[in-house]
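BUG-282 | component: ligand-complex export | severity: low

The export step for S-adenosylmethionine jobs runs without errors, but we want the raw record kept on the ticket for reference. Input record follows.
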Amino acid sequence: MQPSLQNTMSMDVESFERLSSFVTRDYGIKLPSTKKSMLESRLNKKVRALGLNSYKEFLDYIFSDEGKQGELYHVVDLITTNKTDFFREADHFHFLSKEFLGKYKTETGRNNIKIWSAGCSSGEEPYTIVMAMEEYKKNNLDTTYSLLASDVSTRVIQTAFLGIYDIDKIDPVPLDLKRNYFLRSKSNPKLVRVKPQYRKKVQFKRINFMDNHYGVSKAEYDIIFCRNVLIYFDKPTQERVINKFCSHLKPGGLLFLGHSESIIGMNVPLRQIRPTVYRYEE
Ligand SMILES: C[S@@+](CC[C@H](N)C(=O)[O-])C[C@H]1O[C@@H](n2cnc3c(N)ncnc32)[C@H](O)[C@@H]1O
């Protein structure tokens, strides 16, 4: 432990290696040594709040029987990068509602659409999907849908479940959709909340992609969004997780990845139909 002028505690190499091996093994997230100062800045407050004087003490505590019951969960909340936005990579939602769903119904007869937002962070992605689906339904009255949203971090799932956001957060949402899908807080004009009937459309669940079983049925989903999550994993882990997603997709179903992610060089049963949009083909 060497407190600096700013009172930040520095992490010794051994503790960093112990923590990064744990995070990679249990959560898939790569933590090269360049991430050390990022980790220190995220964990410092927690170490001090626990009244501990070094990262070694902190790691001994979180990996103890007592730590495993509680604090270890909060560590993943601090380590994950949860950056997200409403209508992030908006062409995906346009493609979904303006091109894919109509064709999918014609080809497969399916109009009860099951969607999974995998790695949903604080909810902006699943609520964007709700808006896209509700708008689609206006001209396609026979379509129904259900939406599962999952993340490994319980902190972001709680935020997503509440559906309360700073008003600036909904800047990317078109004006008519803002009016239809959000309520302004009466007590704090800087906050908005997703209307209850749309919050109810989403079922939230904690799922860690490194687990053997995700607790969801095989061949259950028509569409899986897993965007800007796999970039934190190494290639073999990405390939393993994508193959697992495929086992949960119906034939002909879609996987959306983030714009900087790809399946190049992977042995996965997917065909690219758009940049970062893939169709599951058995
Ligand atoms: C950058 S956010 C992406 C959010 C959203 N999909 C988007 O594109 O805006 C990545 C999310 O992946 C989650 N995540 C990281 N590792 C995970 C794992 N092993 N299992 C499930 N979710 C994970 C993080 O907690 C975080 O909320």
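Assignee comment: Attached the raw record above. The longest strand covers residues 249-257.
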